[in-house]
TrEMBL record:
It comes from Vigna unguiculata. This is Glycosyltransferase. GO terms for molecular function: UDP-glucosyltransferase activity. Belongs to the UDP-glycosyltransferase family. It comes from the Eukaryota.
Length: 492
C-alpha cells in the first residue's frame, strides 16, 4: 500500500437504492484518488454495494463500510425493510423517516468519533450541514438529479409559471433557462404544483445546500454546460460535476457485475448468451429503474407494443402482486418470446451497465431516471422517454429538447413513485416512439448519442472536465485541512 491518505472522509448515502448507487460510486472515486473513505449505512442498504467496496479494498484502496443497526423494532418495521424501495409498502414509509430521526444522533456521533476532514452526504440529510459546521469541516452535498432538473425546479419555485397556464394540460414555458422548455402542470411534481410537506423538505434541502461547502452531481460539463452555469449562478454555491461516475468507478466487468442486486450466476440461458446472437444495435433495452411497478393493464400494453414492433428486446419487468389474468398473460408472453427468441425478460434486477455496453443494444425505453440517462449517454444510445415520477419529466426535456437523443412516448402525468397513477400509455404510442427511434429517426439520434458518449469518455480522462473537477476539489479540501491545522497551532 502507498503512503497514508492525506484526507479522511465520511460518505453518508440516503436509504434508497438509486441514491446509494451513484453516491457509493463517488465514494469509490475518492478512494481511487487516495482519499480515505468510510461509508456509513445500515446492513440491508450495504448489500447494494458491499461487493464493490470489497473489490476496491482488495485492490488496496482505503475504503470500508461502517454499519449502523437499523432500529426496525423501535419503529415497528419488519426486519429487512430499511429503505424507500420498490417493495416497501407505502404505509411503512413514514416509519423509515422515524427510523432516520432515531439514527441521526448516532450518525452525528460517528462524524465526531471518526474525525473526518470532510463529509459527503445525500441531499436528504440536510441536518448534516449543521453537524459539519459544529466540527468545522466541509460538508459536500450529493444531488441525485441533473443540473437541468434542479434549475427547472428552481425557476418554477421562483416564478410559478404554471399558475398562469389555462389548464392542467396547457403548456407553459419554464422562464429564464438557457433553452425554451415547455411543459404542463400535470407533468410537474406534486410538491411544485401546490405546496405540501415535501415542498417544505425541499426548501430545507436548499437552505442546507447554501450552508454547505458545495455540491456534487453525477453529470459532466458537455452534457449540460448551460444548466451547470445557470445552477451555479442562481445558487451562488460551488458545484462539481464528476460524472459519469458509473463509467469512472466501474472499470472492469467484475465491478459492473457486482453492482446492485445482481445474481452471482446467470443460469444456463443467460441474457448474455442470448444477446450475443443478435446483430449490432438491433436490440431494445426496456427498463423503468429501481423504484417502479406498473399495473398489469400497463404491462400488457408494453408487451403488445414490443411484440408488434418486430424488434428484439430485453425487458426488465416486475410482478406487482395483482396476480390473476395479468400475471397469466405475462407468463404466456414470456413463453412465446422464448420460443421465438424475440425477447428476453429479466425479472427484478438487471446488470444494467453490462447490458448497455453490449454492442447488440440499439436503444432504450426508459423512465428517464437520472442515473439511467447518464449511463445510456455513456453507452452512446438513443432512448424512448417515458417519465414517471421524481424529476423524470425535467430529465426528458434534456434528452428530447436539448440533447435531441430521445423520442417521447407522450407521457402526460407525473405520479408518486409508490403509486400506479391513473395514466395508461397505449401500446400504439409506445410502438410509434420505438419505430421512430429504431427506424425513421435512428441515424440522426444515434450520431448525436455517439458524440455525447465520446464526450463522456473524455470527461473522466486526464485533462477532462470531471477529472479536473475531482482533482481541484481534492486539492481545495487538502488546503482547508492545512489552514485549519495552522489555525489550531497558531491560536494561543
Ligand atoms: N439499475 C440496475 N438494474 C436494474 C434497475 C436499476 O442496475 O434492474 C441501476 C441503474 O443502472 C441505475 C440505477 O439502478 O444506476 C437506477 O437509477 P435511476 O436514476 O436510473 O432510476 P430510479 O431507480 O431512481 O428510478
Amino acid at each position: 500500500m502507498g503512503k497514508e491518505s492525506e484526507l479522511k472522509s465520511i460518505f453518508l448515502p440516503f436509504l434508497s437504492t438509486s441514491h446509494i448507487i451513484p453516491l457509493v460510486d463517488m465514494a469509490r472515486l475518492f478512494a481511487m484518488n487516495g482519499v480515505d473513505v468510510t461509508i456509513i449505512t445500515t446492513p440491508q442498504n450495504a448489500t447494494v454495494f458491499q461487493k464493490s467496496v470489497d473489490l476496491d479494498s482488495a485492490r488496496g484502496r482505503p475504503i470500508r463500510t461502517h454499519l449502523v443497526t437499523f432500529p426496525a423494532a423501535q419503529v415497528g418495521l419488519p426486519p429487512g425493510i430499511e429503505a424507500f424501495n420498490v417493495d416497501t409498502p407505502r404505509e411503512m414509509t413514514p416509519r423509515i423517516y422515524m427510523a432516520l430521526a432515531i439514527l441521526q444522533p448516532r450518525f452525528e456521533q460517528l462524524f465526531h468519533d471518526l474525525r473526518p476532514d470532510f463529509i459527503v452526504t445525500d441531499m436528504f440529510h440536510p441536518w448534516t450541514a449543521e453537524a459539519a459546521a459544529k466540527l468545522r469541516i466541509p460538508r459536500i452535498m450529493f444531488h441525485g438529479a441533473s443540473y437541468l432538473a434542479r434549475s427547472a425546479a428552481h425557476v418554477v419555485e421562483q416564478y410559478a409559471p404554471h399558475l398562469a397556464a389555462k389548464s392542467d394540460t396547457d403548456r407553459f414555458v419554464l422562464p429564464g433557462l438557457p433553452d425554451r422548455l415547455e411543459m404542463t402542470r400535470l407533468q410537474l411534481p406534486d410538491w411544485l404544483r401546490s405546496p405540501n410537506q415535501y415542498t417544505e423538505l425541499m426548501k430545507t434541502i436548499k437552505e442546507s445546500e447554501k450552508k454547505s461547502y458545495g455540491s456534487l452531481f453525477n453529470s459532466f460539463y458537455d452534457l449540460e454546460s448551460g444548466y451547470y452555469e445557470h445552477y451555479k449562478g442562481v445558487m451562488g454555491t460551488k458545484s462539481w460535476g464528476i460524472g459519469p461516475v458509473s463509467l469512472w468507478a466501474n472499470q472492469d466487468a467484475s465491478d459492473k457485475a457486482a453492482r446492485g442486486y445482481a445474481k452471482e450466476e446467470e443460469g444456463e440461458e443467460g441474457w448474455h448468451e442470448w444477446l450475443n446472437t443478435k446483430e449490432e444495435s438491433s436490440v431494445l433495452y426496456v427498463s423503468f429503474g429501481s423504484m417502479n411497478k406498473f399495473p398489469y393493464s400497463q404491462l400488457v400494453e408494453i408487451a403488445r407494443a414490443l411484440e408488434d414492433s418486430g424488434k428484439d428486446f430485453i425487458w426488465v419487468v416486475r410482478k406487482n402482486g395483482e396476480g390473476g389474468e395479468g400475471e397469466k398473460f405475462l407468463e404466456e408472453f414470456e413463453k412465446r418470446m422464448k420460443e421465438s427468441k424475440k425477447g428476453y425478460l429479466i425479472w427484478g434486477w438487471a446488470p444494467q451497465l453490462l447490458i448497455l455496453e453490449n454492442p447488440a443494444i440499439g436503444g432504450l425505453v426508459s423512465h428517464c431516471g437520472w442515473n439511467t440517462v447518464v449511463e445510456s449517454v455513456n453507452a452512446g444510445l438513443p432512448m424512448v422517454t417515458w417519465p414517471l415520477f421524481a424529476e423524470h419529466f425535467f430529465n426528458e426535456k434534456l434528452v428530447v429538447d436539448v440533447l435531441k437523443i430521445g423520442v417521447p412516448v407522450g407521457a402526460k402525468e407525473w405520479r408518486n413513485w409508490n403509486e400506479f397513477g391513473s395514466e395508461i400509455v397505449k401500446g400504439v404510442d409506445i410502438g410509434n416512439a420505438i419505430g421512430a427511434m429504431m427506424k425513421e429517426k435512428s441515424e440522426e439520434l444515434r450520431k448525436r448519442a455517439k458524440t455525447l458518449s465520446d464526450a463522456a469518455k473524455r470527461a473522466i480522462m486526464d485533462g477532462g472536465s470531471s477529472h479536473n473537477n475531482m482533482k481541484e476539489l481534492i486539492q481545495e479540501l487538502i488546503q482547508i485541512k492545512h489552514s485549519k491545522a495552522q489555525e489550531t497551532t497558531t491560536t494561543p
